[in-house]
Amino acid sequence: MCITKHRPSRPQVVAKSFAKPFAQADRLLPGANFGDTYALVVTGLALDAVGVSQQVFGRQPSWIKWLLVLRNGIVTPFGLKTGPERGSGAHIGFLPIVRQSTNSVVFGFDDWHLDFRVLLEVKERKSAHHEISVSTAVKTHNLVGSSYLALVKPFHRIVVPAMLMQVVSGH
């Protein structure tokens, strides 16, 4: 007689992470001059937006931690913010929470060179499928902000999908 153990199902990727324009960047951050969205369709998840945010932003792979340490070392002499200020309120990982609901969390802060917002949304789709998206909106204020954005965009395009995949790999 063969007895098999039942394993709890793991979240599975239904559609690989994909990028798309963020048409509502100006609604998230009025005056935004950059916006993008990365999305992932999964099945087998039963989390709200805050739970997903903790999986995506609450921890970073070591190579992303290293990039953030390098970034912070480079920008500190220029007076750029390197994370949430102490006593500034709730945050997940290095991102301060601006507002939250069951299906979405908005993160971000304003600095002298640029303002940014990150919107994480969990949308229910057909038959237990969920689309998890991370949208970024940036409003630059000056040449330093525009230059900074141009320098970090290539890294942003690699880091955001990698962090989004933690929803599946983190289980």
Write a concise synopsis of the structure shown.
By secondary structure, the protein is of the alpha+beta class. The protein has five helices and seven strands.
Explain this structure to me?
The protein has 171 residues and is α+β, with helices and mostly antiparallel strands. It has five helices and seven strands, in the order βαβααβββββαα. It has a single domain, classed as Alpha-D-Glucose-1,6-Bisphosphate, Chain A, domain 4. It has a seven-stranded antiparallel sheet with strand order 1-2-7-6-5-4-3. The longest helix has 22 residues, at 143-164. The radius of gyration is 17 Å and the shape is globular. The two termini are 31 Å apart. Residues 1-8 have low confidence and may be disordered.
Write the layout of secondary structure elements.
Elements: E1 12-21, H1 25-28, E2 34-43, H2 49-57, H3 62-75, E3 91-92, E4 95-100, E5 104-110, E6 114-124, E7 129-140, H4 143-164, H5 166-169
Antiparallel strand pairs: 1-2, 2-7, 3-4, 4-5, 5-6, 6-7
Question: What tags apply to this protein structure?
Answer:
171 residues, alpha+beta, Alpha-D-Glucose-1,6-Bisphosphate, Chain A, domain 4, 31% helix
Q: Mean pLDDT across all residues, rounded?
A: 86
Give the domain tally.
Answer: 1
Helicity level = 25-40%
Order of helices and strands: EHEHHEEEEEHH
The CATH C-level name is: Alpha Beta
Largest sheet: 7 strands, antiparallel
How far apart lie the N and C ends?
A: 31 Å
Number of helices: 5
